[in-house]
Amino acid sequence: MKILVPVKRVVDYNVKVRVKSDGTGVDIANVKMSMNPFDEIAVEEAVRLKEAGVATEVVAVSCGVAACQETLRAAMAIGADRGILVDTDAELQPLAVAKLLKALCEKEGPQAVICGKQAIDDDANQTGQMLAALMGWPQATFASKVALADGKATVTREIDGGLETLELSLPAVITTDLRLNEPRYATLPNIMKAKKKPLDTLTPDALGVDVAPRLTTLSVAEPPKRSAGERVADVAQLMDKLKNVAKVI
C-alpha cells in the first residue's frame, strides 16, 4: 500500500507575522519557515502505518518554490521514503494544489492520501476536500484515529456532539486533526539518511495543470488592537454593562 502525504512550507508557528507596509500580503523576508504542523501529523501517521506493516511506501509531496525541498527532507527525516516537488513560483491556491495532487495521484496510484486538515498560513481547510471531489474518492476529515485494513479505512473524527466513526473504501482522502498523534523528533542519523533519499522535481506544465490564481487578494490588514478593559463597582453595574454591550452587538 502506498500513502501520499502532501506537506506545505509555511511561516513557523512561533513567528509573529507582520503585514507588508503596502498591505499586499505578509512579510516573509528573513522569517523562519517550517513544515505545516498538521502536515507533520499526517507524515507521522503515515510512517506509523508503515512501521505497523500496513503501508509499504510513504511519498511526501510539496508544491511551491525550490526551498520546499527543505520541507520534503524534513518529512523524509521523519520516515517518508521519497519526495516529490512540484516546482513553481506561482501563487498556489487550494484548488490549484488539489489539481496538482490529483495529477500526482493518477501518476503514483496511492491507496490513501493523508494530509493536514488545514495550513496555518491561510487556514483554508479546502485542499483535502477538493482533492477527494476531483478524484471521486471518499473522504474523512478531522481524523483523531485512523486504521487501515482489508481495503477499508476506519476513521474516528471529532464533531460538535462527540466522536463519529466512519468506514471508507480505499482509495480515500483523510485529513488529520491535532489529537491524531504527536510527531516524533527527527534524529540526526535520520536527518543524514534523508539527504540521500530520492527527491523528484516536476512542474505544473509537466503534469498538465493550470495553476493560475482564481481569487485576487485586494488587501491584507492586521486585526484591530484589543481595547483596554473597564473596571466596574459592583455586579449590578457589570450586568448593566453586559446588557448594553449585547444590545449594541
UniProtKB/TrEMBL annotation:
Cofactors that this protein relies on: AMP
Keyword Transport: yes
Domain Electron transfer flavoprotein alpha/beta-subunit N-terminal, first and last residues per copy: 23-211
Highest taxon listed in the record's lineage: Bacteria
CDD domains: ETF_beta
Molecular function, one GO term: electron transfer activity
Alphabetical UniProt keywords: Electron transport, Transport
Function, as annotated: The electron transfer flavoprotein serves as a specific electron acceptor for other dehydrogenases. It transfers the electrons to the main respiratory chain via ETF-ubiquinone oxidoreductase (ETF dehydrogenase).
Family: Belongs to the ETF beta-subunit/FixA family.
Assembly description: Heterodimer of an alpha and a beta subunit.
Descriptive protein name: Electron transfer flavoprotein subunit beta
